[in-house]
């Protein structure tokens, strides 16, 4: 059935629950998993770009630390469950597009991810990376709620 599962994570509690569920599935199927964290580049507008140098550098450090923490959760859980794994961090403006691209590049046959359950105005304004992946992916997507 599925042999290579992509696990995008943002490090949230919901993502960690999805990772755990997907790793359980991978163990059952004998599949490999690829953990993925997408870091968005800093976005800021100012009159003086010099003001942003420290902020941008700090943002990158914090974003990379968050990515490392999120991916280490996958590493630790996969090791504990005896599931073959690898991880990747990418930088992209559109996380959904990066998720689909990494899945294609790594020849994953399933994307397993969390839904953050945004509804109403928040869902309309912020959108959902999961919804965008569902809409644009030709690879099957398993959504954990």
From TrEMBL:
Transmembrane segments: none annotated. It holds the Pfam family Usp. GO terms for cellular component: cytoplasm. Residues 1-145 form the UspA domain. InterPro entries: Rossmann-like_a/b/a_fold (IPR014729), Universal_stress_UspA (IPR006015), UspA (IPR006016). Keywords: Cytoplasm. It is found in: Cytoplasm. SUPFAM superfamilies: Adenine nucleotide alpha hydrolases-like. Belongs to the universal stress protein A family. This is Universal stress protein. It comes from Massilia glaciei.
């Amino acid at each position: 059935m599925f042999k290579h599962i992509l696990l995008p994570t943002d490090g949230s509690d919901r993502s960690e629950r999805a990772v755990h569920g997907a790793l359980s599935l991978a163990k059952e199927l004998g599949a490999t998993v690829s953990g993925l964290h997408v870091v968005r580049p800093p976005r800021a507008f100012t009159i003086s770009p010099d003001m942003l140098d420290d902020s941008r550098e700090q943002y990158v450090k914090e974003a990379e630390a968050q990515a490392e923490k999120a991916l280490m959760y996958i590493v630790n859980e996969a090791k504990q469950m005896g599931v073959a794994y690898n991880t990747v961090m990418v930088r992209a403006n559109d996380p959904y597009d990066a998720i689909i691209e990494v899945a294609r590049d790594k020849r994953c046959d399933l994307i397993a991810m969390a839904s953050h359950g945004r509804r109403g105005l928040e869902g309309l304004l912020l959108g959902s990376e999961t919804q965008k992946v569902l809409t644009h992916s030709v690879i099957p997507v398993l959504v954990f709620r």
